[in-house]
């Protein structure tokens, strides 16, 4: 891949967040830094004037479970994706569901999660480009349970196993001209250490940006 991807990583730091941005930022710099120009912000107003000329993809690691987005912030992100931008939502980044419009765009909303534990992950569509170079894997994680929007064209390509049942762990869907990808792992820095998940992040960033994922060894 010749073109470097321009990505905006947005999240939250502080004492009143469950998933601080900084540890995830450090890991993401290691994972995608060679192929991606990563701009990092805690300013949600950055979403208001998102430009396809400036960014290819937004990476949401937001922890805004108790804080609503403004109408302008919501509209800016929706316009960006509808116009061909991508969004990669990692774990708690689904907290953008505070906006009902963004919840519908992402395709699902978080309902609950059992305690952090060891989970096994299984690809359910091995030929999917997002799973290129990503074998089944095991890692510690919060088993997020979600409820899908009945009108979103969601395609689940990864599941995790919990108490003998399998649940959605990653999906993709389209919105206008853009692409949305959700990855359920990402609770803390430990989540970003397994190589299969690191490769899944690489694949997701380039896929959301409109490129074909490629396997890149670290």
TrEMBL record:
Pfam families, A to Z: ThuA
Coiled coil feature spans: none
InterPro entries to which the protein is assigned, alphabetical: Class_I_gatase-like, ThuA-like
Transmembrane domains' residue ranges: none
ThuA-like domain sequence ranges: 24-208
Xref: PANTHER family: GALACTOSE-BINDING DOMAIN-LIKE SUPERFAMILY PROTEIN (PTHR40469:SF2), SECRETED GLYCOSYL HYDROLASE (PTHR40469)
Record's protein name: ThuA domain-containing protein
